[in-house]
Write a structure and sequence with these properties.
By secondary structure, the chain is mainly alpha-helical. The protein is about 60% helix and about 5% strand. It comes from Papilio xuthus (Asian swallowtail butterfly).
């Protein structure tokens, strides 16, 4: 009996040891498993949930990045976007007809009827009967997105790809030959689209995006060259300059000097080339002349005429409205008028006149006013 009790106690101790060791292992496993799940929850699972919650009917993240990359001035208002799905009214149709007629009248008055076509900047979508000339800084991101959707890209792919919208679009719509472009434009039922914006607003937006502060790699050499050429004279006019990049005064002085030296044969950067040269409206005779200032209703007309509503799925969401409100202002929160007054205040009336020799045809051709800028610039005789 004594032997049995000792044996029993030994067995109990042995089993208790094994139980305690197993319990310790189990507790350790549960601890590390819980910690692992917490980490995964805060990282991988959280990002996965945000992807699932994404609304693909709005501009995807990749396109938001490109839209927000540079300062946007004079963009369409949230109120206009809210009417994006409405069919164009008679006022819109009449206005579009007036714009097209105005362009042709200016082409005749300026003897530009024999203009050659710059076919390199056109996108031709044969499947949807649409031709578009891409003017940078004039709703180019919005219509590049449209063309990528029309080209068959999935919205989820567009949201995660690192390729630029322009690169993607060119894979689907390569540069047309001049013959292909002419044949397509004259085909019944095809809409040829040109989107413009107030010329000096676009010029300022391009300057601020490409040259003013941290210039993109492609423009750094140009920025340094402008400063080297114009800084000495700019200091005489503006006083001490702290900026490493060129001031707006220096940029405009560079454009004027180059234009005077090269004349009509001057080759412009694509971000500030005059519209009448870049997209050849006197040779193409665009069906629709849209404007950034009325972009939503002008785009709605094109979409409605070609029956592209279901393909593009242009539904208004709160996030897009908030995005446009942000885009309506520059990076420093100033509105368009304040920015124009500030930057054009660096120029004098002679520089304004020289600048209008470059862009005056654009103002005249597309119905924009120049008188505003006479109040902004400095007057030498005062």
């Amino acid at each position: 009996m004594l032997f049995s009790v000792k044996r029993f106690r030994a067995r109990v101790k042995t089993k208790a040891f094994y139980c305690l060791r197993c319990s310790a292992k189990t507790a350790a496993f549960l601890f590390w498993a819980t910690l692992y799940m917490i980490v995964m929850r805060l990282t991988v699972f959280k990002s996965g949930e945000s992807k699932q919650a994404k609304d693909w009917s709005i501009l995807p993240d990749n396109y938001t990045k490109w839209l927000m990359q540079g300062p946007v001035l004079g963009d369409d208002s949230p109120e206009e976007i809210a009417n994006n799905l409405l069919e164009p009214d008679n006022v819109t149709i009449s206005e579009l007809e007036t714009r097209a007629a105005r362009v042709q009248n200016v082409c005749q008055d300026r003897s530009l009827d024999s203009q050659t076509i710059n076919n390199k900047e056109f996108f031709v979508d044969h499947a949807h009967n649409l031709v578009w000339c891409n003017i940078f800084k004039a709703a180019s991101s919005s219509w590049l997105y449209n063309f990528n959707i029309l080209g068959g890209y999935d919205k989820k792919f567009l949201a995660r790809t690192q390729q630029t919208p322009l690169t993607l679009a060119r894979k689907k719509f390569p540069r047309p030959s001049e013959e292909e472009l002419r044949d397509t434009i004259t085909t019944p039922g095809v809409i040829s689209l040109l989107v413009v914006r107030e010329p000096f607003v676009r010029l300022l937006s391009a300057y601020r995006d490409k040259l003013e502060y941290n210039s993109p790699p492609f423009y750094r050499k140009l920025a340094k060259s402008i400063v080297a050429e114009q800084r000495e004279e700019a200091i005489k006019v503006l006083g001490p300059i702290k900026s490493i990049g060129p001031t707006f005064y220096e940029f405009v002085a560079y454009l004027i000097a180059k234009h005077k030296a090269q004349g009509p044969k001057m080759v412009y950067d694509e971000h500030w080339a005059p519209y009448y040269q870049f997209c050849s409206p006197c040779a193409v005779n665009f069906t629709v002349i849209a404007k950034v200032e009325t972009l939503s209703r002008d785009s709605a007309y094109v979409i409605q005429q070609l029956g592209l509503g279901q393909v593009l799925e242009r539904r208004v969401k709160n996030r897009r409205t908030r995005l446009r409100i942000i885009m309506n202002k520059s990076r420093d929160g100033k509105n368009t008028s304040a920015l124009l007054r500030h930057y054009f205040g660096q120029l004098d009336d002679n520089m304004l006149n020289d600048l209008l020799h470059i862009y005056g045809i654009d103002f005249e051709m597309f119905g924009y006013e120049t008188n505003l800028y006479k109040r902004y610039v400095r007057h030498k005789n005062l």
